[in-house]
Amino acid sequence: MSRWIVAVCAAGALVLGGVAHQADARPRWATAKAAAIHPGVQTFTPSGQCTANFVFYDKKDVYIGQAGHCSSKGLPNETNGCTTAHYPLGTKVRIEGAAQRGTIVYNSWATMRSVGEKDESTCYGNDFALVRIAPGDRAKVNPSIPVWGGPTGIDYHAGFGETTYTYGDSELRAGIDALSPKFGVSTGDDYDGWTHGIYTVTPGIFGDSGSAVLGPTGGALGVLSTVEVLPRPLENNASDIGKILEYMKRYTNLDAVMLAKGTVPFSGVL
């Protein structure tokens, strides 16, 4: 099932020179208006700039997600997470709005290599990293998607022609916020459900990698991963968040990590 695709953000793409816990362990979030750290902020690894997707938490820590290939050492067209070199766990990530750097505590690419994953669909579709936010920055976090609101939970499927919603933050847009939120149209699932094809106006570009994709009901659908060259030019592919989390929990000790729902209701209206 080999296809000619190019990672939206890979090595060299844009290279640049305390929470109170309630009884149910959910953090007490900053308000969406005041939060400096949220889905859609820029993240910076040694490979370059990407966009954060969703916020996660467990009893001890708060995390923000990015694409696994955001710490790739490979070329832009090296998108097989089972074979492409990457920076190790423990790599520091500069997070927009944070005073301290975050730490990569999970990378699907590292896990797939460690367990000897051979399934082609999984190797190409499983593209996710979890960045632990420093304790001193946790009070700055809100999980709501800018403009759209949500996520409302997890959307496990987007059928052909259904609406999707994205929020990218590439530096190539020169800080023009109006270009970040975009409507999209689903072209259905691929790679055995590991990816969802979407067309947006305009497509996700270098630096948008890792950004959140919401499904038709405002749930977390995927993580922006690649832009296709053939057979569907400029179609973006998003890695399925449900499969991503299932894989992570199956092979690591991060089984208690949960997706944080937005405190702002989903609207789907610009």
Summarize the structure in words.
It is a single chain. By secondary structure, the protein is mainly beta. It folds into two domains: 5-143 and 245-259, Thrombin, subunit H; 163-240, Thrombin, subunit H (Beta Barrel). The chain contains three helices and 15 strands. A hairpin with a 5-residue loop joins strand 12 and strand 13 (220-228). The protein starts with a strand and ends in an 11-residue tail after the last strand. Mean pLDDT is 87; it is low at 1-23.
Topology at a glance:
Layout: E1 5-7, E2 42-45, E3 48-51, E4 55-57, E5 62-66, E6 92-95, E7 102-107, H1 108-115, H2 120-125, E8 129-132, E9 163-167, E10 181-190, E11 195-200, E12 212-214, E13 220-228, E14 236-240, H3 241-251, E15 258-259
Antiparallel strand pairs: 1-13, 2-3, 2-6, 4-5, 4-15, 5-8, 6-7, 7-8, 9-10, 9-12, 10-11, 11-14, 12-13, 13-14
CATH architecture of the largest domain: Beta Barrel
Number of domains: 2
Radius of gyration: 17 Å
Strand order of the largest sheet: 3-2-6-7-8-5-4-15
N-to-C CA distance: 37 Å
Question: What is the average of the pLDDT values?
Answer: 87
What helical percentage do the residues reach? under 10%
CATH superfamily of the largest domain: Trypsin-like serine proteases
**CATH fold-level name of the largest domain:** Thrombin, subunit H
Shape: globular
Describe what is shown at a glance:
With 270 residues, the chain is mainly beta. It folds into two domains: 5-143 and 245-259, Thrombin, subunit H, CATH 2.40.10; 163-240, Trypsin-like serine proteases (Thrombin, subunit H, Beta Barrel).
